[in-house]
Specification:
Radius of gyration: 15 Å
Strand content: 15-25%
Structural class: alpha/beta
Number of helices: 6
Distance between the termini: 34 Å
CATH superfamily: Vaccinia Virus protein VP39
Number of strands: 5
CATH topology: Rossmann fold
Mean pLDDT: 87
Shape: globular
């Protein structure tokens, strides 16, 4: 999954994906608080952190092994502006507010995607941005 995500997200992140949001690059250069949910091994977070050193980047994932890999990569890349933690995004506390929340191929994996999206909304600062990339999928209609 990390390799696929790297090819579909990370490779074009700073050049193609982030510029889709008007004025986002300027804000990231100035310094904002960013959360990536379902960050996996932190490739996207570490890429953004390296490109935008004035911003602070948080990565949440359910896998403690993935978070450990992300932390090691952040250290190796010299990214002091990253915070990675094991977190079930169904149970966000809303104590922290973010200027930008990203979700790259993460929402479709959630058991309750609607609840996750509500939690994301509650975790955004006033005027905050939610940037999501996900697969095109739907639930098939079942007849009983």
């Amino acid at each position: 999954m990390a390799e696929e995500s790297y090819q579909t997200v990370v490779v074009g992140l700073t050049e193609h994906i982030l510029p889709l949001v008007p004025d986002l690059i300027r804000k990231l250069k100035k310094g904002i608080k960013v959360l990536d949910i379902g960050c996996g091994m932190g490739k996207a977070v570490n890429t953004m952190a390296k490109s935008f050193p004035n911003s602070t980047f948080y990565g949440y994932d359910l896998s403690s092994q993935a978070i450990e890999v992300a932390k090691k990569e952040a250290t190796a890349m010299g990214n002091p502006n990253t915070v990675f933690q094991v977190q079930d995004i169904l149970n966000l506390t809303f104590n922290d507010k973010f200027d930008l929340i990203t979700a790259f191929d993460a929402i479709h994996d959630q058991p309750k995607p609607g609840e996750v999206l509500r939690n994301i909304y509650k975790s955004l600062n006033n005027g905050g941005i939610f940037l999501m990339q996900d697969i095109h999928a739907s639930t098939p209609k079942r007849q009983y």
